[in-house]
Amino acid sequence: MIQKIFKFMKRLIFSSFLLYGYNMLSLPLNIIVPINVITILGITILGIPALFAFILIHIFIY
Q1: What share of the chain in percent tops pLDDT 90?
Q2: Which of 8, 28, 33, 34 is most deeply buried (CB count within 10 A of its CB)?
Q3: What b/e readout covers 18-47, taking b as 16+ CB neighbours within 10 angstroms?
């Protein structure tokens, strides 16, 4: 049980850094995905394809 919690926490931290890194790289293009609970949990649970989905949602809606 403790191992699952540590694994989830590790993925949560990785997702936060991944989203922050993406935002730093895409700053000149002005395609920034907000860092909030929904995006962090989405990337944590679904992985990197969720980041691409959030990017596409941001492009098509805004």
Answers
A1: 97
A2: 33
A3: bbeebeeeeeeeeeebeeeeebbebbbeee
